Amino acid sequence: MRRVAVEGLPSDPLEAAARFHGDVAPALAGAGEDLLLVFPPADHAHRGWRLAAVQMLARAAAPRRVNAVASATEAATRAAEHYLGEAGGLTGQYLPLDDAGAGAVLHSGA
Fold it and tell me: Which helix (H) or strand (E) holds 14?
């Protein structure tokens, strides 16, 4: 799986989407291997265009897989990359990662 850092996009969601589709997506269209796009963290306004872009690239690249994460830490990105590498049928996903760590999962006895 080839990791592709997607950096330097504008903070405005519409401008970021336009730049991604104009500059980044065409360069990825002919990729001969599975891809993991790594976006920097962003607020909820970026989720829709990022998910749509990853799904579009995944459909075009099939049977190769294309997934994306949003993360600022290497450890979180590496863990997601390992997980996605083992999940052979998973493609077209956008996963915002919890870089701060969610902590222990609490289980109620109910």
Answer: helix 13-19
Helix (H) or strand (E) run with residue 67 in it = strand 66-70
The pLDDT of residue 29: 81
Q: Which residues pair with 89 in a beta bridge?
A: none
Alpha-carbon torsion angle 72, 73, 74, 77, nearest 10: -70
Give the tens place of pLDDT for each residue, 70-108.
Answer: 999 999 999 999 999 999 899 999 999 987 665 554 455
Neighbouring-strand partners of residue 69: 38, 95
For 89, the token pair is 């049928």
Check if the beta carbon of residue 48 is closer than 8 Å to that of residue 15: no
User: Which residues have a Cβ under 8 Å from the Cβ of 51 and sit 6 or more positions away?
Assistant: 94
Per-residue tokens: 54: 């990853």
pTM above 0.90, yes or no: no
Q: What is the C-alpha end-to-end distance of the chain, expressed in Å?
A: 41
